[in-house]
Amino acid sequence: MFKYYITRFAMLIPKLMVISIIVFIGIQMIPGDPVTRTISPEVYAHLSPVQLNELRQELGLNDSMVVQYLRWLSGLLRGDFGYSLVTGGKISGIIASRLPATFELAFVSLIFATILGLLFGFISAIKKNTIIDYTNTVLGMIGISVPPFFFGLLAILLFSIYLRWFPTGGRMGYGHVTFFARLKYLVLPAFILGISLIATLMKFTRGSMLDVLSKEYIKVARSKGLSEIKVNLKHGFRNALIPIMVVLVMRIPMLVGGTVIIETVFNYPGMGSLMVSSISGSDMPVVMIGTFIMTSSVLLASFFVDVFAAIIDPRIRFGTDAGGGNGK
Amino acid sequence: MNEEIILKVENLQTKFRVGKRIVHAVNDVSFELKKGTMLGIVGESGCGKSVTAHSIMKLLPKNGSITGGKVKYYDNNGKAHILNEYDRNSKELRTIRGKEISMIFQDPLASLDPVYTIGSQISENLREHENISKKEAFDRVVSMLFELGFSNPEERYYDYPHNFSGGMKQRVMIAIAMICNPNILIADEPTTALDVTIQAQILTLMSKMQKTHGTSTILITHNMGIVAETCDEVAVIYMGRIVEFGNLEQIFNTPMHPYTKALLKSVPVLSSGGEKRLEYIPGATPDGSEVIKGCAFADRCKHTMEICRTKQPVESIVDGSHRVLCWLYDKGGKNA
Ligand SMILES: Nc1ncnc2c1ncn2[C@@H]1O[C@H](COP(=O)(O)OP(=O)(O)O)[C@@H](O)[C@H]1O
Ligand SMILES: [Mg+2]
Fold it and tell me: Mapped to the 3 state alphabet, what secondary structure does chain B carry?
């Protein structure tokens, strides 16, 4: 069982390597003097061409690509991401101010959407072909097909401008340092970001539940005299969850990608809005590092979902070979 | 032999709704199960055996319902429960299911929940019905597994179903069904999905359990050979009707219904492996969605008379408990 988690974790490393190589190549292709990306622009402006050349030598910019890549990678691992072309600030500093915001948004949205999606799907399945089920299905279709920025604008109009329940955007007011104080800034963007995930999960949960409920072991559970709630939850839902985990893993990148739009709509100071402003300001180093960080988080999140999937499915934990008593 | 009746099924009728079509799966099934005996229900596949079993426990899918007849169960205090009148998930029915009447299903490979250990699936039944500690439940499950031939039951308790072979899974199913020491066990083709060698082993085990625990048992099968080896009484079912009912000697020595005779000619021999093909019965089994005016077997019968095609046969008592549903034996003449 432990071995499974270790292997899964080890599999992250080659994936991260590939992404880092792509990002490195991307950075190399940025036009302009690469020296500007390793020292602050103020220092750069005061250097003579000779000094610059010495610096280039010193910084290893004349070394082979492989050496440069390895050096860049080790810097990356130590949190040295280079400098922004636009503000001249350290990228690590910029990221440090933005990443927690996006993490908060994506995490809250993920949890929230997962709970709602599973709940609605479950209800739809056990109330199959009733008005509740049909309503869920129609709402789900709308949730999947309408673009999130539209929902975002609609929500701002209704809940922020008209009803005044929530702020129109931003992340925190003065002194709002605790999570709960920030929560009112989070509700709308997190919900809007999660809508398509809710709809997708609902659809898959319904299908997966119906599939499981037609299984023979459900009839066996009923034949034991268990209540419907126990049958549906303990035997139905628990088994239905396994394929849904796969869907969840596949949807996490879309959720993280969705932050780009949602953060822009809600003027939320996270990685997504940073990416948008960096792209429009041609701040390529920031774009590259931002991409790297977001991709890595997606990989890491998928790893955790895999771990969870193994916890709920003994066949994954113990390997799928049937027969033979290779117990624990 | 004890003559006390524990389960009585009277004119049971079960239908399914498939889109706009109605499937008449069980048309008229009546039989009684005597305490401590084993009753075989035999018939070709598709004739309504499983539906009969599911109807008794009200485990029918949502599109199926009992539209007529009665299922009477007499509990230990002699109280009669009309099972078909209980709501499908009512408390009354749930206290009987698993505890007093339990069931073994056709497909052991699909009958166990893949995400729970086999031990917890057995003790789940026990702990649902008896107020006992985890430890006591564990001990009961372990001794049941031992009785069913698992050599290291304490370890097996923690195994998951995917580690088990078909025969082992079916033994676990027997454990689930027997753990509460039920009054009635309904086994729906418990060996059909298993290898021939394992079949004999499971049947022997079931007979042994039935004798040591005194469980009244209904054994559903399409195999007359199995009936001959294990049952006390036999109900022959065709197109959702019991066409002949009698004890083992009556059915095997003096079969009356042409269908029973045909079934008997196809007795597969268990030990030699493989089944002989059923003696060719001409014609196909009719589809349950059309209502047949006369005898459902008329098109395939060698002795078809005019009346067979126009009127549903009435039951004739041959002798004592032996009864048959066929115009050939209608002593009273035109009594339909
Ligand atoms: N869920 C269902 N929906 C519709 N028809 C069904 C359903 N279950 C069984 N039937 C029909 O009922 C008839 C009897 O089936 P069954 O009792 O399973 O036969 P068997 O004797 O092989 O166990 C068959 O014609 C079958 O098609
Ligand atoms: Mg069947």
Answer: CCCCEEEEEEEEEEEEEECCEEEEEEEEEEEEEECCCEEEEECCCCCCHHHHHHHHHCCCCCCEEEEEEEEEEECCCCCEEEHHHCCCCCHHHHHHECCCEEEECCCHHHCCCCCCCHHHHHHHHHHHHCCCCHHHHHHHHHHHHHHCCCCCHHHHCCCCHHHCCHHHHHHHHHHHHHCCCCCEEEEECCCCCCCHHHHHHHHHHHHHHHHHHCCEEEEEECCHHHHHHHCCEEEEEECCEEEEEEEHHHHHHCCCCHHHHHHHCCCCCCCCCCCCCCCCCCCCCCCCCCCCCCCCCHHHCCCCCHHHHHCCCCEEEEECCEEEECHHHCCCCCCC
